[in-house]
Amino acid sequence: MNPALIDTHAHLDDDKFQADLPAVLERADAAGVCRIITVATTAPTSAICVALAAQHPALAATIGIQPNQVAEASPTAWDEVVALVGRDKVVALGETGLDRHWTYTPFPQQEDYFARHLDLARRHALPVVIHCREAEADVLRMLRADFDRHGPVRAVMHSFTGNTATAAACLAMGLHISFAGMLTYKSAQSLREAAATIPLDRVLVETDSPYLSPVPLRGQRNEPAHVVHTASCLAQILGLDMGTLAQCTTRNACSLFGLTI
Fold this sequence. Notes:
With about 260 residues, the chain is α/β, with parallel strands linked by helices. Helices cover about 40% and strands about 15% of the residues. The protein has an eight-stranded parallel β-sheet. The two termini are about 15 Å apart.
C-alpha cells in the first residue's frame, strides 16, 4: 500500500458537504488520505473550520478571509479571525491573497488584507495559504516586499495555475507550490510543464473541494478522496512512482503545516 496522502486544501464547511461529511471522510480514509486541511474563506467559516477540526481527528484548520470575501466582511471580522489564532489544530492563515478575475473587493482593500495575513503569520510563526487569480505580478510584488523585510516566506501557492517563471519566483522566496485537479485537464499542458520544475521538497497536492474535480471525475462534486488522481498525474510528470510522490508531498505538508501522522 502506498504511503498516505494529505489533502492540503479543502472547503469542508461548504454546504455541499453538509449532508454527508462523515461518509466523505470515510472515503478519504479508504483512499489513503490520512489528513485534510479544511480551509476558511470568511470569519464565520474560520470558526466553522476550527470546530470541524475539533470534531474529526483527520482534520486541521486554517483561519482567514479570502480576497473576494473581504468587501462583505463585517467590521469585527478581522478581530474574530485574530481571536482564533492559537486555537487547537489551527495550522495556517488563509486563504488570503489577490484576485483580479473577480471585482467583488476593491484591489487596495485586497492588498490591505493580504498584508494583514502576512504580518499576523509572521508574528505567530504560522504558514500562509495564498489564493492568486490573474494577479501573479501583484502577489509576487507583495511577497517580495515581505521577503526583503523578513526573509523566507512560509507559505503555499494554493491551486497553482501560474507559469514556470512565477513558480521559480515563489520557490526563490521559500514558498511551497500546491497542485489541484486542474493539473489533470487536457488544456493544462503549460501547468504540467511548470509542475515538472518543482523540487520534490516543495510540492504539495490538494483538491480545493468541492471545486475543480480532476479527470476522470470532472463535473462531479470534488472531495478529498479524489486527490489521488492529481497525485497520480503529478507522479507521472515528475517521473516518480506513486509511493515516492505520496511520501514527498506528505513529508512537505507535515513540515509546512506542523502536522503529525
